[in-house]
Amino acid sequence: MLRTLSGRFLILTIIFVMVAEVLIFVPSIARFREDYLLSRLERAQIASLALLADDMISKELETELLRNAEVYNVVLRRDEVRQLMLSSEMPAPIQDTFDLRDPSAWTLIYDAMARLFKPEPEVIRVIGAPVLEAGLLIEVTIWTKDLRNAMVDYGLNILVLSAVISIFTASLLFVAVRMILVKPIKGVVGYMQRYAAAPEDARRIIQPGAGVEELREAEVALQTLQTELTAALKQRERLAQLGGAVAKVSHDLRNILTSAQLFTDRIEMSEDPTVKRMAPKLVNSITRAVHLCESTLAFGKAEEPAPKLTDVPIADVVQDVVESESLAIGDFDLKLTNEVAQGALVMADAEQLYRVIHNLVRNARQAIVAAGQAGEITIALEDAPDHSLIRVSDTGPGLPPKALEHLFKPFQGGMRKGGTGLGLAISSELIRGHGGELTLEKSDESGTVFKICLPKGDAAEI
């Protein structure tokens, strides 16, 4: 029970109420002592007034008056004259004197606690003001045994009452906490457990309904998390299905391209100058397509194959991309510029780097053509001591908001209508495999710039 929220609330409530009752107990016991002594003063005053009414009372009556007042002596000061009105034999000398005419609260509390924790009985003198101004002062001597016993009985009654109030209050709070907090929390836990059993089932997503604002905020946050997770799981399932379909298509496409590769061997033997010039590019394109199909098949089994890092002449790779895209441009007013110096080397996998740059250039070309305005795409290289930086920039219209929001996410970051966003997602994964990073440097109405950062040396050293 102590490990439950309601159980701890119960124990804490009892403790806090008892602490509050103790704080009430101290001034209460002081007040009780003061009332007790004042009542003895009033009784003594009544007894002294009886003596004034009949100065010839017997010794037996005097003793009975003192016994009823529970005092030993009564001294009354009237008209500046101090008179011993009633007296009897005292069991012990007077040990202390207490003046109740104008005591402070701290004095009353201190005297009460001192008496409560001092069990030895003693005779004390108590001074007070007579009731209804029947004199200047009245003082009595009393035995403290009865006073302390009365204080102990009163204190025990307060403690018992405090315990009853504490238990009753704690029980009410226990029930309230269970209804207001514990039950809704258990409901949230139940939703979480049911959702964990089948996260793909949207019917198991929590529906906020708590009346407590903080709990409702927690339910709303959990609902958002579950909704996003369910969507991600569904997307993952679609990706898995797509991966299987792509693997099958790639398998058949690889066989077709392999057959086409055999025909290109004969085309290379043609004596036609145009054919001789175009044949090597056709062979290279078909070879890359075959490699891509093989990589897709490998990805469908596990993941993108690790890059084979070598010193790649980056200018040649960029030039292959420029020539390939130039054929797709046709007569459109779009300029492709290769600013990479001949002889520049980067540590990369040539085939994977070609795919990344080709994806970026193709995306830029499609965006500019879709905008219907002339433009330019530039590929440049910056060399630094520890990394190589490839920039692919264009003068296109910039990325749409959806693409910016879901950049590098498959099926969400498409840059044109009908696009899947796979190109950027694949490119980012390939560059991460090199130990580098593909990032968007800028994208606005003046154009878009992507950066490819490739570390020099082994990726393990970065």
From TrEMBL:
It comes from Cognatishimia coralii. The chain crosses the membrane at residues 6-30, 156-177. Residues 248-458 form the Histidine kinase domain. This is histidine kinase. One of its GO terms (molecular function) is kinase activity. The keyword Zinc does not apply. Its EC number is 2.7.13.3. InterPro entries: HATPase_C_sf, HATPase_dom, His_kinase_dom, HisK_dim/P_dom, HisK_dim/P_sf, Sig_transdc_His_kin-like_C.
